[in-house]
Amino acid sequence: MVDITGHGQAENIMQEGEKQERTLVEASPFTTERKLYEISLQQSEEKFRLIAENTNDTIALLDMDFNITYVSPSIMKIRGYTVEEAVLQKPEQILTPASLQKFMEMAAKIMPSELAGTAQTRDYPTIELEQYHKNGSTVWVELSFSFLRDETNKAKAIVVVSRDTTKRRRAEEALLESERLYWSLISNSSDLIILSDAHGITIFCSPQSETVIGYSYEKFIGQMMPDIFHPDDADLCRRTWEEVFQKGHDLQDFEYRIIDPQGGVRWVSHTSNQVKVNKRVLGTHSTIRNITDRKIAEQVIRASEEKYKTMLNASPDCMVLINLKGIIIEISEIGLELFGVDSRDEMVGEDIFQFVPTEEYERLQELLAKTMNEGFTQNIGLTVRKKNQSKFTSEISATLMQGPDGEPLSFMIIVRDISHRKKMEAKQSHSNRMSTIGEMAAGIAHEINQPLNIISMVMDKILFETDRTNTVDVEFLKNKSNKIFENITRIRDIIDHVRAFSSSREDYILTAFNVNSSIVNATSMIVEQFKHHGISMNLQLETRIPQVVGNTYKFEQVILNLLTNAKDAVMEKKSKQQDSEMLVRIRSYEENLFIFVEVTDNGIGIKNDDLHNVMLPFYTTKEEGKGTGLGLSISYQIMKEMNGSIEITSDESFGTKIRLVLPVQEKK
Fold it and tell me: What percent of the chain lies above the pLDDT cut of 90?
């Protein structure tokens, strides 16, 4: 009940004034009585004003139609309106719709009896209403009211006293909201929440009991933890509860097993903390979480990891797992041996870029970027550095490891030491070149024989003229000598080119060269063979073709390998179809910053089953003894070194077209 002293004092003052007025009128002459009445009334009004203006509550007088006839200045503190503004307001301007309805319902109950003068009570209960503040907000007030009555007990005015209860109301609402939120959290939590008293007796158990452990909350209320533990964990759990309830220890993620009502096994994680007020222990707060799925997942993961490690270490190649930043997170046992380290600790946590030379950084970055975009990258040559700083040639393949939603997680890199293979390939390549030179011996001999014939003819001419005239013209001799030296130089160039072509040096510095020149040099060494077998060679070389970067002699070897295969293909077809014409065409052209060289023949063709294998080492479609199976394999490696590629299309009826693709050398 609100203190309405202000209202009672106001009513008493007015009644006291009326009594004084009657006493003065009865005891004095008219003039004196009037004067004394005015003085008494003035004193009464002054007391009322002092009370009304100095109370924190708002005092208001309303007529029986709810029009305000007076309001105390404290209205400004509560609602922000001045007295002049407030007296002009109607109930609907003061109260929010819900409070207005509440007020009108109350008035409908008590006003009829007050207007009729039949009211049986002078005390009415307080009512809490929400009022508008001048700043646009609302305030809550606790309102008490009474009536001023005449001699017949009929109400003639309403006295209203309002007290600001906004802070209290807001606090109550906040507390209520907090309670609702707390209960919502408990009700919607996936964990079971248990409150126990200081003796460990359960006094509250949240509704999740059946979901988490399978038992109704009633099984817990009024007792300590029921005996639902797995037999293998029971002793440990009992000792743990003694630590919690008798020694006051807290629990953090204590894991154990229980047996549910169906006899199944569930894993739970139990966290328990003491509840204290002023160092006095009131009880414990426990949270129990069902972790069965997690435990099963952990078991599956452990089994998967064991399987993964077995597969990792069973691979004959080094396998390295790195995160997206290039940090090594796993390496196989073969990898430890390959990098020359004694333990995983020397590799795990290190940057993968520490194990490649500085000049290979960009190449490794490109490999990872390509893997990120395409998902995998295969067989990229890369120099790798061991722990002792020695280097070896490797072949790198990388795969992007992704999560369930496709998000990139890490890179799986396979490192294969191909140093020995590279040496063998170099030897095989050299052997292949020497074999090619042997096959082209007739052509080379022809190339050398032509300038020798010219030299012989010039010498005969000189001797003939000398014998005929017994004198030699100096100018004639000079011209003939120049001719001799020109052909000697031609012979020397042919020999030098054959020597360079047959060289096995691997430290050749890559340079820019013209593919047409290499094609012409290569064809010059085999053209005599073609003529001898009746094979037509057609050169269609685009003029002013841009240069490419690489080893011109190795590129000649590629052309010679392709021409040799073309020769064998057309001759094999000729042996089966005597009327077939043997044709080989070489075409070069530029398109979209790439140089294309096509070697086309109308020979026997390649079967579809063999097309995917012809690039493999030692794979051959020729009869036994007629091929090593290394020509195309070596050509493929040479093209890779030049950042190029080989494309093959073939038809057993129309022949084969092999296209070499090389990037144009950028101008600097």
Answer: 15
90 neighbors 62 (Cβ within 8 angstroms)? no
Give 297-327 as a DSSP string: HHHHHHHHHHHHHHHHHH-SSEEEEEETTSB
pTM here is 0.35
Long-range contacts of 345-353 (CB under 8 A, 24+ apart): 346/387, 347/320, 351/326, 351/327, 352/320, 352/322, 352/326, 352/327, 352/328, 352/413, 353/326
Confidence of residue 1 (pLDDT cuts 50, 70, 90): very low
Q: Which residues contact 13 (CB under 8 A, 6 or more apart)?
A: 44, 47, 48, 51
- Rounded average pLDDT over 139-160: 86
Vertex 205: Cα angle to 203 and 208 (nearest 5): 180
**What's the token pair of residue 462?**
């000189």
Cα–Cα distances in Å, from 278 out to 196, 203, 248, 281?
Answer: 18, 21, 16, 8
Task: Give the pLDDT of residue 626.
Answer: 46
Q: State CA 116 to chain mean position distance.
A: 80
Q: Which amino acid is at 52?
A: A
Cβ atoms of residues 295 and 285 within 8 Å: no
CB 134 within 8 A of CB 32: no
Comparing CA positions, the residue from 624, 626, 575, 629 lying closest to residue 603 is: 575
* pLDDT score of 658 more than 50: yes
- HSE, side-chain direction, 13 A CA sphere, residue 608: 1
Classify burial at 611, counting beta carbons within 10 Å of its beta carbon; exposed 0-12, middle 13-18, buried 19 or more: middle
Q: Length of the chain, please?
A: 668
Are 253 and 223 contacting, i.e. CB atoms less than 8 angstroms apart? no
Taken in order of first residue, the domains within the chain and their CATH numbers are 5-162 (3.30.450.20), 189-296 (3.30.450.20), 315-417 (3.30.450.20), 428-663 (3.30.565.10)
- Look at the alpha carbons of 431, 436, 442, 446 in this order and tell me if their dihedral is positive or negative: negative
What is d(CA 396, CA 412) in angstroms, rounded to the nearest whole number? 10
283 vs 197: CA distance, rounded Å: 4
Which pLDDT value is given to residue 95? 93
312-345 CB burial, b ≥16 within 10 A, e <16: beeeebbbbbbeeeeebebbbebbbebbebeeee
* Six token digits for residue 264: 């199944």
Contact call for residues 410 and 322 (beta carbons, < 8 A): yes
Distance (Å) of CA 465 to CA 452, 459, 591:
20, 10, 56
CA-wise closest residue to 241 among 294, 188, 202, 289: 202
How many alpha carbons lie under 13 Å from residue 494 in its C-beta half-sphere?
22
Average confidence (pLDDT) over 302-314: 64
Which comes out higher in pLDDT, residue 480 or 376?
Answer: 376
Q: Which residue has the tokens 């089966």?
A: 576
Bridge-based pairing state of the strands 583-591 and 536-541: parallel
